[in-house]
Amino acid sequence: MSWAQILVLAVAAVIVFWMVGAYNRLVALRAAIGAAWLIVAEALARRGAAARVLAEALRAPMADEARALDALLAAQAQVQEAAEALAVRPVRLDATLALVKGEAAMGAAASRVLALLDQQPLLKAEPAIAEQAALLGDSASRLAFARQLFNDAGAAYDEAAAQFPTRLLLRLYRFEPAGRL
User: Fold this and answer.
1) Measured in whole angstroms, how far is the alpha carbon of residue 173 from the centre of its chain?
2) Which residues form a coiled coil (predicted)?
3) Residue 141 is part of which domain span?
4) What digits encode the pLDDT tens for the residues 112-164?
5) CATH number of 14's domain
6) Which of 54, 105, 142, 165 could form a disulfide with 75 if both were Cys (CB 3.0 to 4.6 A apart)?
7) Is-contact 92 86, C-beta < 8 A?
8) Does residue 21 lie in a domain region?
9) pLDDT, tens digit, for every residue of 62-80?
């Protein structure tokens, strides 16, 4: 075997090992996005449960505000649908955009229901309603933390994918950019 052949084989081996390493790094970073998504999904589930229980508890005493309660439940259903789609593949950009849209609707609906509840101090003083309202209100900070973890994991993945020469492999392995919440 000539020196030229050995050199070509050595260069080919380096390229193959680099490709395997780059692939493994991107897969590990995608797995980190999946782990961060589990934290977001748990926070969304807790908030969703609190929203449903609160809406049902307020259904009779706030019958004149049924539209606000229905809007809260509809927004929660929209968030849940988007979350289920994102759970399948947490890197999908279109699914994260759908969740962001649902989150905006949920935030507006929850703010409206909590504002209406603040106008009725006797109703808000009931322990069951107060507990669910507190859970719904406190979920914002938990979700903000979980979203930040998810966004940081997505940023690390996108940064690694954008580096040269790793970005040359994106099409080969069909990696997509990560979405942000």
Assistant:
1) 24
2) none
3) 3-173
4) 999 999 998 888 888 988 999 999 888 888 999 999 999 999 999 999 999 98
5) 1.20.120
6) 105
7) yes
8) yes
9) 999 999 999 999 999 999 9
